[in-house]
Amino acid sequence: xxxxxxxxxxxxxxxxxxxxxxxxxxxxxxxxxxRQNRDSxxxxxxxxxxxxxxxxxxxxxxxxxxxMLPPENNVGPVTPSLSATASRVSQxxxxxxxxxxxxxxFDDFVLSYDRRNRVAHWVFEHLSKDNVKYNEGVDRxxxxxxxxxxxxxxxxxxxxxxxxxxxxRGHLAAAGNHKAHQKHVEQTxxxxxxxxxxxxxxNRNAWNRLERYVRKMTxxxxxxxxxxxxxxxxxxxxxxxxxxxxxxxxxxxxxxxTHFYKIIVGETKxxxxxxxxxxxxxxxxxxxxxxxxxxxxxxxxERAAGLLxxxxxxxxxxxxxxxxxxxxx
Length: 329
Description:
By secondary structure, this protein is α+β, with helices and mostly antiparallel strands. It folds into two domains: 1-61; 71-325, Extracellular Endonuclease, Chain A. It has helices at 2-47, 80-92, 129-132, 159-162, 182-187, 199-216, 298-305; strands spanning 103-105, 109-114, 119-127, 168-171, 194-197, 223-231, 235-236, 242-243, 248-249, 254-255, 259-267, 273-281, 320-321, 324-325.
């Protein structure tokens, strides 16, 4: 009996030790796992500069343009192409960005893309005599409309959206504004720079007249800065209420703007600045209608678009707005 009792006690003791060791091992593994996670998070957070901003998720992302500095202000080696691109973007956006939502820079123009409507919020260009003059080496007929693959497939438009829609693929940055290089013209055919426009009477007529007028401004000004974009304006209907209604086309539901705007700033040789602003309805317009009929106060476009244009220019320092003298200049 004594021997049996001794054996039971030994087995019980060994079992207790084994179970205790197993529990200890499990606790150690859990502690090690938690420690590793905490260390990895600490390491990750230490590599990211996070400001204490209420309302912003810690790991949220904001799509915005990164300021590009001229080569002399950059630290470290800069490739010639990157340096040239940064310099050109700085030149185009000399007077400020209207917004920073999904900014996309091309070689000769910059745009902000509206992923919901599949049409740009705005497109910015800088024109001079050199980039609008005739260039026999540039052939527009070689250009093809292409989807912009830098945009997520969920949010980009496709040529199929325009097929049998009844609308032209209308340029925002005009192809005729970028004749310096074949590549520059070709880039204006990316669909991120395109919007559905009524063809006869608008895109091929009135809107084309406005684009040609803007190019002619390079005869008067040394530098011309152009911002172009869509508007979706309200209209009073039979019940007396105002509604914003617009058509969408294709499987990607590309929005058809009700109107389009252009805001232009011309800079003279003596650094005086003059501004003109236009809004055109996306409908057939009679050829006899003068362009001045579509001039509007710039602030009316800003209110409608929800954007501030040329915000680095104080309005009271403009010499003229829509041909009329303003300010103290």
